[in-house]
């Protein structure tokens, strides 16, 4: 079967001409000189338009404290699991053993009659 409305290579290329990736536009921080998104605060120092919006030093310090506390808590949980008593389960009977037991029971039942 023939395609009714086939696109030529030129039409396909024209449509795909807008698919190219573009580099993001970045602004330079007036305080520290790092690059950041335009109209957004600098993620390195927390300044926007020459004034401090977020105290990044305090934020980084609180984040580190939170992460260390989390690591310690995770470490304690792992040690508690290791020290828990291990309960061994008895192995279940295999199907072959079950069949043998059933045969013994049926033989005993026949002999009793």
Sheet with the most strands, sense and barrel status: 2 strands, antiparallel
Strand content: 5-15%
Uncertain runs: none
Number of DSSP-assigned strands: 4
Characterize the overall form.
flat
What is the succession of H and E elements? HEEEEHH
Radius of gyration: 36 Å
How far is the N terminus from the C terminus? 80 Å
Structural class: mainly alpha
- Helix tally? 3
Strand arrangement, major sheet: 1-2
| Relative helix content | 40-55%
Mean pLDDT: 82
Characterization of this structure:
The chain is mainly α and 113 residues long. Helix content is 48%, strand content 7%. It is flat, with a radius of gyration of 36 Å.
Structure summarized in a few sentences:
The protein is mainly alpha-helical and 113 residues long.
Q: Which structural traits does this protein have?
A:
113 residues, mainly alpha, two-stranded antiparallel ribbon, 48% helix, 7% strand
Task: Describe the SSE topology.
Blueprint lengths: L8 H8 L10 E2 L6 E2 L10 E2 L2 E2 L3 H28 L11 H18 L1
Antiparallel strand pairs: 1-2, 3-4
